[in-house]
Amino acid sequence: MATTDRLRPSRYPKRAHYDAETIYPILDEALFCTMSFVWEGRVRSIPQSIVRVGDSVYFHASVGSHFFRSLAQLDEVCITVTLADDIVVAKTAFNHSINYRSVVLYGKPTVIEDQELKYEAFKQLTEKMVPGSWDYLIPMTQKQMDKTMAIGVPITEASAKVRQGPPTFVEAEADHQIWTGLIPIAPQRGAAVTGPDAGDIPLPDHLK
């Protein structure tokens, strides 16, 4: 995986990682990302669901999406994800921080024409959002496939930045009796809420 100057952070460079063993798990855990690019001289950003399959990340959108149709004409997009784990509470507001895991990657977007790859990307994205659901659902039709665009971006230039652990110890603050620690903020899935069309259909095992 390429490491370039623009991926090297100017602050806390020791927190940076450039290996797939660090980057891929962050991409796999993140449900959403921000895709940024320049189009017609203006910066654009799109919040988007994301899935990794092999050494690429994939996105989906309606074939009628102006932004996504334009992506295939670009040489590059920038994709970022952030997983926030804890608020780090220090003795001073200046030293408050966040425990986080983030990824920045650059790559050329490509419209996926191969039907098998496109189908697999949709399947993996669905399974990521709702694990165990793909085989339970009504099978995706060719008409639905045709109405949906898949965009792939190879993971060739990427870096992760990670901060974990307690507040930084500051010798000059040692005598101040102020509580320090972590406040967990990592998201978690709650219990499924039955929709009005479900009626008396029991909750399937994959949603329990």
What would you say this structure looks like, in words?
The mean pLDDT is 93. A hairpin with a 7-residue loop joins β6 and β7 (97-107). By secondary structure, the protein is an alpha+beta fold. Strands 1, 2, 3, 6, 7, 10 and 11 form a 7-stranded antiparallel β-sheet that branches. It has a 4-stranded antiparallel β-sheet with strand order 4-5-9-8. It has helices at residues 20-29, 66-71, 115-129, 142-147, and strands at residues 16-17, 32-39, 42-49, 51-53, 56-62, 77-89, 97-107, 110-111, 148-154, 157-163, 181-184. The longest helix has 15 residues, at 115-129. It has 4 helices and 11 strands; from the N terminus they run βαββββαβββααβββ.
Span between N and C termini? 39 Å
User: How helical, in percent, are the residues?
Assistant: 10-25%
- Portion in strands: 25-35%
Approximate shape: globular
Structural class: alpha+beta
For this structure, the CATH topology of the domain at 5-83 and 100-164 is Pnp Oxidase, Chain A
Largest sheet features: 7 strands, antiparallel
Question: How many β-strand runs?
Answer: 11
The CATH architecture assignment of the domain at 5-83 and 100-164 turns out to be Roll
CATH class of the domain at 5-83 and 100-164: Mainly Beta
Q: Return the string of H and E elements.
A: EHEEEEHEEEHHEEE
Spans of at least 5 consecutive residues whose pLDDT stays below 50 are none
Question: Mean pLDDT, rounded to whole units?
Answer: 93
Instruction: Kindly report the name of the CATH homologous superfamily of the domain at 5-83 and 100-164.
Output: Electron Transport, Fmn-binding Protein, Chain A
